[in-house]
Amino acid sequence: MAYGMMSDPSWFANTIGIGLCAVKISFYYPLSGHFLIGITVIMTFLFYPICLIRVALNEKMSATICWINMVGPAVPLYALAIIMQPTFEQERPDINHFQTVQRSIYLPSMTCLFVLCVVGMVSSVHGF
Fold this sequence. Notes:
Elements: H1 10-28, H2 30-57, H3 63-71, H4 74-83, H5 95-127
Helix pairs in contact: 1-2, 1-4, 2-4, 3-5, 4-5
């Protein structure tokens, strides 16, 4: 606080780590992977606005913080893209149900995360 800087948001980097673990775990244990990606997406939607506010309030940010701010929503986006594929046990899934789930859950979530990626890019240029 002596230099007028806010603390490092290391909690947001932890959400990125959970998202990467979710992808690896979902290959072998799909239910656990879906649970972890759910936690990652919820934490991203909760913590990312705080990160954006932090960038807007500080005049100068380090390159690492700007990188985390820009890449943060990309990891849940990547995880959703991998997890939305049918599992090995579902070689012939019910196409109607599969498409309904993709259109109602995955695509709106992925669109929102892509918009957050673009917002993060603009805010990291502003903060850098």
